[in-house]
Amino acid sequence: MANNTSDQGEAIVQATNANATSYRRKEMWRALESLVTSRWALVGMLILFIVTFVAIFGPQLAPFDPNRQNIMMRLLEPGEAGAGDLTYWLGSDQLGRDVFSRLLYGARVSLLVGVAAIAVGGTIGIIAGLLSGYYGGWIDDVIMRLGDIQLAFPFILLAIMFLVVLGPGLVNIILVLGIGQWITYARIVRAQTLSLREKEYVEAARAMGDSTFSILFRTILPNIIAPLTVIASFNVAGVILSEAALSFLGLGVPPDVPTWGSMLSESRDHLLSNKWWMSLFPGLAIIFTVLAFNIIGDWLRDFLDPRLKENG
Fold first, then answer.
1. Mean pLDDT for the stretch of residues 95-101
2. Around Cβ 125, how many Cβ atoms within 10 Å?
3. Does an H or E element contain 192, and which?
4. Closest Cα to residue 33, out of 220, 309, 221, 281?
5. What are the phi and psi torsion angles at 118 (to 5°)?
6. Residue 181: closest CA among 247, 107, 262, 240
7. Could you tell me the fold of the domain covering 42-62+72-311?
Protein backbone atom coordinates (compact mmCIF):
# COMPACT_ATOMS: atom_id res chain seq x y z
CA MET A 1 0.00 0.00 0.00
CA ALA A 2 2.82 2.38 0.90
CA ASN A 3 4.60 1.57 -2.34
CA ASN A 4 1.48 2.36 -4.34
CA THR A 5 1.13 5.72 -2.57
CA SER A 6 4.80 6.49 -3.20
CA ASP A 7 4.48 5.56 -6.87
CA GLN A 8 1.41 7.76 -7.22
CA GLY A 9 3.25 10.67 -5.60
CA GLU A 10 6.21 10.28 -7.94
CA ALA A 11 3.84 10.10 -10.90
CA ILE A 12 2.16 13.34 -9.81
CA VAL A 13 5.53 15.07 -9.40
CA GLN A 14 6.70 13.88 -12.82
CA ALA A 15 3.44 15.02 -14.42
CA THR A 16 3.73 18.41 -12.73
CA ASN A 17 7.32 18.85 -13.91
CA ALA A 18 6.34 17.81 -17.43
CA ASN A 19 3.50 20.33 -17.46
CA ALA A 20 5.82 23.08 -16.18
CA THR A 21 8.40 22.26 -18.87
CA SER A 22 5.71 22.26 -21.55
CA TYR A 23 4.38 25.60 -20.30
CA ARG A 24 7.85 27.21 -20.32
CA ARG A 25 8.48 25.91 -23.82
CA LYS A 26 5.14 27.27 -24.99
CA GLU A 27 5.87 30.66 -23.44
CA MET A 28 9.28 30.82 -25.11
CA TRP A 29 7.73 30.14 -28.51
CA ARG A 30 5.02 32.72 -27.82
CA ALA A 31 7.66 35.30 -26.87
CA LEU A 32 9.66 34.57 -30.03
CA GLU A 33 6.54 34.82 -32.19
CA SER A 34 5.53 38.09 -30.53
CA LEU A 35 9.03 39.50 -30.99
CA VAL A 36 9.19 38.54 -34.66
CA THR A 37 5.79 40.07 -35.41
CA SER A 38 6.66 43.31 -33.60
CA ARG A 39 8.80 45.43 -35.91
CA TRP A 40 9.77 48.00 -33.29
CA ALA A 41 10.67 45.35 -30.73
CA LEU A 42 13.03 43.79 -33.27
CA VAL A 43 14.61 47.19 -33.88
CA GLY A 44 15.04 47.70 -30.13
CA MET A 45 16.59 44.26 -29.73
CA LEU A 46 18.96 44.91 -32.62
CA ILE A 47 20.10 48.21 -31.08
CA LEU A 48 20.63 46.57 -27.69
CA PHE A 49 22.57 43.73 -29.30
CA ILE A 50 24.86 46.22 -31.06
CA VAL A 51 25.39 48.28 -27.90
CA THR A 52 26.07 45.15 -25.83
CA PHE A 53 28.47 43.79 -28.45
CA VAL A 54 30.30 47.12 -28.51
CA ALA A 55 30.42 47.25 -24.71
CA ILE A 56 31.96 43.77 -24.50
CA PHE A 57 34.38 43.98 -27.43
CA GLY A 58 35.00 47.75 -27.44
CA PRO A 59 38.72 47.49 -26.52
CA GLN A 60 39.30 45.11 -29.44
CA LEU A 61 37.32 47.28 -31.88
CA ALA A 62 38.74 50.66 -30.89
CA PRO A 63 41.48 51.83 -33.29
CA PHE A 64 43.04 54.16 -30.67
CA ASP A 65 43.58 54.37 -26.95
CA PRO A 66 40.56 56.42 -25.81
CA ASN A 67 42.74 58.57 -23.51
CA ARG A 68 45.62 59.03 -25.95
CA GLN A 69 46.14 62.75 -26.49
CA ASN A 70 47.70 64.24 -29.59
CA ILE A 71 47.40 67.99 -29.85
CA MET A 72 48.60 67.89 -33.45
CA MET A 73 45.50 65.84 -34.32
CA ARG A 74 42.98 67.96 -32.40
CA LEU A 75 39.53 68.75 -33.84
CA LEU A 76 39.87 66.60 -36.95
CA GLU A 77 36.64 66.19 -38.88
CA PRO A 78 34.99 62.75 -39.28
CA GLY A 79 36.79 60.61 -41.86
CA GLU A 80 39.92 62.76 -41.83
CA ALA A 81 43.25 60.93 -41.74
CA GLY A 82 45.75 61.64 -39.01
CA ALA A 83 49.35 60.67 -38.40
CA GLY A 84 50.37 57.37 -39.94
CA ASP A 85 47.38 57.43 -42.29
CA LEU A 86 45.12 56.30 -39.45
CA THR A 87 41.60 57.54 -40.05
CA TYR A 88 39.56 59.26 -37.35
CA TRP A 89 36.19 57.90 -38.47
CA LEU A 90 34.17 60.12 -36.13
CA GLY A 91 36.71 62.89 -35.79
CA SER A 92 38.80 63.90 -32.80
CA ASP A 93 38.15 66.13 -29.79
CA GLN A 94 39.92 69.20 -28.46
CA LEU A 95 42.76 67.07 -27.05
CA GLY A 96 43.23 64.99 -30.18
CA ARG A 97 41.52 61.91 -28.77
CA ASP A 98 39.60 59.67 -31.14
CA VAL A 99 35.84 60.18 -30.73
CA PHE A 100 35.03 56.73 -32.14
CA SER A 101 37.26 54.94 -29.63
CA ARG A 102 35.86 56.95 -26.73
CA LEU A 103 32.33 56.19 -27.93
CA LEU A 104 33.06 52.45 -27.89
CA TYR A 105 34.51 52.55 -24.39
CA GLY A 106 31.64 54.74 -23.17
CA ALA A 107 29.09 52.05 -24.07
CA ARG A 108 30.60 49.75 -21.44
CA VAL A 109 30.22 52.31 -18.67
CA SER A 110 26.64 53.22 -19.61
CA LEU A 111 25.43 49.62 -19.75
CA LEU A 112 27.32 48.61 -16.61
CA VAL A 113 25.92 51.51 -14.60
CA GLY A 114 22.39 50.98 -15.95
CA VAL A 115 22.21 47.24 -15.25
CA ALA A 116 24.15 47.29 -11.97
CA ALA A 117 22.15 50.19 -10.52
CA ILE A 118 18.86 48.46 -11.35
CA ALA A 119 20.18 45.25 -9.77
CA VAL A 120 21.06 47.13 -6.57
CA GLY A 121 17.84 49.13 -6.42
CA GLY A 122 15.69 46.17 -7.45
CA THR A 123 17.19 43.87 -4.82
CA ILE A 124 16.69 46.40 -2.03
CA GLY A 125 13.20 47.30 -3.22
CA ILE A 126 12.02 43.69 -3.64
CA ILE A 127 13.18 42.67 -0.16
CA ALA A 128 11.68 45.80 1.42
CA GLY A 129 8.41 45.41 -0.48
CA LEU A 130 8.03 41.72 0.44
CA LEU A 131 8.63 42.41 4.13
CA SER A 132 6.36 45.44 4.10
CA GLY A 133 3.47 43.71 2.37
CA TYR A 134 3.74 40.37 4.18
CA TYR A 135 4.19 41.54 7.76
CA GLY A 136 2.46 44.93 7.66
CA GLY A 137 2.30 46.83 10.96
CA TRP A 138 5.25 48.91 12.08
CA ILE A 139 7.56 47.31 9.51
CA ASP A 140 5.26 48.52 6.73
CA ASP A 141 5.04 51.99 8.29
CA VAL A 142 8.81 52.40 8.66
CA ILE A 143 9.64 51.22 5.12
CA MET A 144 6.94 53.29 3.43
CA ARG A 145 7.78 56.43 5.42
CA LEU A 146 11.43 56.10 4.43
CA GLY A 147 10.26 55.91 0.83
CA ASP A 148 8.07 58.99 1.26
CA ILE A 149 11.02 60.92 2.69
CA GLN A 150 13.16 60.02 -0.30
CA LEU A 151 10.43 60.94 -2.78
CA ALA A 152 9.99 64.31 -1.09
CA PHE A 153 13.34 65.45 -2.52
CA PRO A 154 14.25 65.71 -6.22
CA PHE A 155 16.39 62.67 -6.93
CA ILE A 156 18.99 64.48 -9.03
CA LEU A 157 19.68 66.87 -6.14
CA LEU A 158 20.12 63.97 -3.71
CA ALA A 159 22.45 62.24 -6.18
CA ILE A 160 24.55 65.39 -6.57
CA MET A 161 24.74 65.84 -2.80
CA PHE A 162 25.88 62.26 -2.15
CA LEU A 163 28.39 62.27 -5.00
CA VAL A 164 29.87 65.56 -3.81
CA VAL A 165 30.42 63.93 -0.41
CA LEU A 166 31.51 60.49 -1.65
CA GLY A 167 33.42 61.73 -4.69
CA PRO A 168 33.17 60.55 -8.30
CA GLY A 169 33.65 56.87 -8.99
CA LEU A 170 32.02 53.96 -10.76
CA VAL A 171 31.01 52.14 -7.57
CA ASN A 172 29.72 55.33 -5.96
CA ILE A 173 27.52 56.29 -8.89
CA ILE A 174 26.10 52.75 -9.12
CA LEU A 175 25.23 52.79 -5.41
CA VAL A 176 23.70 56.26 -5.54
CA LEU A 177 21.62 55.57 -8.65
CA GLY A 178 20.64 52.12 -7.36
CA ILE A 179 19.48 53.37 -3.97
CA GLY A 180 17.47 56.03 -5.76
CA GLN A 181 15.42 53.33 -7.53
CA TRP A 182 14.47 51.08 -4.60
CA ILE A 183 11.19 52.75 -3.61
CA THR A 184 9.66 52.13 -7.06
CA TYR A 185 10.14 48.39 -6.69
CA ALA A 186 9.21 48.40 -3.01
CA ARG A 187 5.80 49.96 -3.67
CA ILE A 188 4.97 47.61 -6.53
CA VAL A 189 6.06 44.52 -4.60
CA ARG A 190 4.22 45.66 -1.46
CA ALA A 191 0.95 46.14 -3.35
CA GLN A 192 1.25 42.75 -5.04
CA THR A 193 2.22 41.00 -1.78
CA LEU A 194 -0.77 42.48 0.03
CA SER A 195 -3.09 40.92 -2.53
CA LEU A 196 -1.28 37.58 -2.70
CA ARG A 197 -0.58 36.82 0.95
CA GLU A 198 -4.15 35.63 1.55
CA LYS A 199 -4.35 33.48 -1.59
CA GLU A 200 -5.08 29.78 -1.22
CA TYR A 201 -1.66 28.59 -2.37
CA VAL A 202 0.07 30.88 0.15
CA GLU A 203 -2.18 29.56 2.91
CA ALA A 204 -1.37 26.03 1.75
CA ALA A 205 2.35 26.77 1.95
CA ARG A 206 1.91 28.00 5.52
CA ALA A 207 -0.13 24.93 6.43
CA MET A 208 2.62 22.68 5.05
CA GLY A 209 5.11 24.33 7.36
CA ASP A 210 7.12 26.29 4.77
CA SER A 211 9.43 28.91 6.23
CA THR A 212 8.78 32.61 5.78
CA PHE A 213 11.76 32.81 3.44
CA SER A 214 10.32 30.06 1.26
CA ILE A 215 6.87 31.67 1.18
CA LEU A 216 8.27 35.09 0.24
CA PHE A 217 10.86 34.09 -2.33
CA ARG A 218 9.52 30.80 -3.72
CA THR A 219 5.76 31.30 -3.54
CA ILE A 220 5.00 35.03 -3.75
CA LEU A 221 7.96 36.50 -5.66
CA PRO A 222 7.66 34.28 -8.80
CA ASN A 223 4.06 35.46 -9.19
CA ILE A 224 4.98 39.17 -9.26
CA ILE A 225 8.12 39.01 -11.40
CA ALA A 226 6.34 40.07 -14.61
CA PRO A 227 5.55 43.71 -13.65
CA LEU A 228 9.01 44.03 -12.09
CA THR A 229 10.63 43.00 -15.38
CA VAL A 230 8.70 45.67 -17.25
CA ILE A 231 9.57 48.38 -14.72
CA ALA A 232 13.24 47.36 -14.76
CA SER A 233 13.47 47.66 -18.55
CA PHE A 234 12.12 51.20 -18.39
CA ASN A 235 14.29 52.14 -15.40
CA VAL A 236 17.52 51.09 -17.12
CA ALA A 237 16.89 53.84 -19.65
CA GLY A 238 16.31 56.37 -16.88
CA VAL A 239 19.48 55.34 -15.05
CA ILE A 240 21.54 55.70 -18.23
CA LEU A 241 20.18 59.23 -18.65
CA SER A 242 20.93 60.03 -15.00
CA GLU A 243 24.50 58.73 -15.35
CA ALA A 244 24.98 60.86 -18.45
CA ALA A 245 23.63 63.92 -16.64
CA LEU A 246 25.90 63.39 -13.62
CA SER A 247 28.91 62.77 -15.87
CA PHE A 248 27.98 65.93 -17.76
CA LEU A 249 28.21 67.79 -14.44
CA GLY A 250 31.56 66.17 -13.64
CA LEU A 251 30.15 64.00 -10.82
CA GLY A 252 30.15 60.64 -12.55
CA VAL A 253 33.15 58.41 -13.06
CA PRO A 254 36.76 59.73 -12.95
CA PRO A 255 37.91 61.89 -15.89
CA ASP A 256 40.17 59.15 -17.27
CA VAL A 257 37.13 56.88 -17.86
CA PRO A 258 35.37 57.86 -21.09
CA THR A 259 31.59 58.09 -20.85
CA TRP A 260 28.95 59.47 -23.19
CA GLY A 261 27.95 62.09 -20.62
CA SER A 262 31.51 63.35 -20.12
CA MET A 263 31.98 63.51 -23.90
CA LEU A 264 28.94 65.79 -24.12
CA SER A 265 30.28 67.91 -21.28
CA GLU A 266 33.66 68.31 -22.98
CA SER A 267 31.98 69.40 -26.22
CA ARG A 268 30.12 72.35 -24.66
CA ASP A 269 32.77 74.92 -25.57
CA HIS A 270 32.68 73.85 -29.22
CA LEU A 271 28.95 73.74 -29.86
CA LEU A 272 28.99 77.15 -31.53
CA SER A 273 32.25 76.63 -33.43
CA ASN A 274 30.93 74.14 -36.02
CA LYS A 275 32.59 71.17 -34.27
CA TRP A 276 29.28 69.29 -34.39
CA TRP A 277 30.71 65.76 -34.27
CA MET A 278 31.94 66.09 -30.69
CA SER A 279 28.40 66.31 -29.30
CA LEU A 280 26.38 64.63 -32.06
CA PHE A 281 27.73 61.09 -31.79
CA PRO A 282 27.60 60.65 -27.98
CA GLY A 283 24.19 62.31 -28.02
CA LEU A 284 22.91 59.87 -30.65
CA ALA A 285 24.37 56.95 -28.69
CA ILE A 286 22.43 57.99 -25.58
CA ILE A 287 19.23 58.62 -27.55
CA PHE A 288 19.24 55.28 -29.39
CA THR A 289 20.18 53.24 -26.30
CA VAL A 290 17.48 54.84 -24.15
CA LEU A 291 14.96 54.50 -26.98
CA ALA A 292 15.80 50.81 -27.38
CA PHE A 293 15.23 50.08 -23.69
CA ASN A 294 11.92 51.96 -23.78
CA ILE A 295 10.79 50.01 -26.86
CA ILE A 296 11.69 46.70 -25.21
CA GLY A 297 9.89 47.77 -22.04
CA ASP A 298 6.79 48.62 -24.05
CA TRP A 299 6.91 45.23 -25.78
CA LEU A 300 7.38 43.39 -22.49
CA ARG A 301 4.42 45.23 -21.00
CA ASP A 302 2.20 44.08 -23.86
CA PHE A 303 3.61 40.55 -23.90
CA LEU A 304 3.21 39.99 -20.15
CA ASP A 305 -0.27 41.53 -19.99
CA PRO A 306 -2.54 38.69 -18.76
CA ARG A 307 -5.51 40.11 -20.69
CA LEU A 308 -3.61 39.74 -23.95
CA LYS A 309 -2.67 36.18 -22.98
CA GLU A 310 -6.33 35.35 -22.46
CA ASN A 311 -7.28 36.84 -25.81
CA GLY A 312 -4.44 34.94 -27.47
1. 86
2. 27
3. helix 182-196
4. 309
5. -65, -35
6. 240
7. MetI-like fold (1.10.3720)
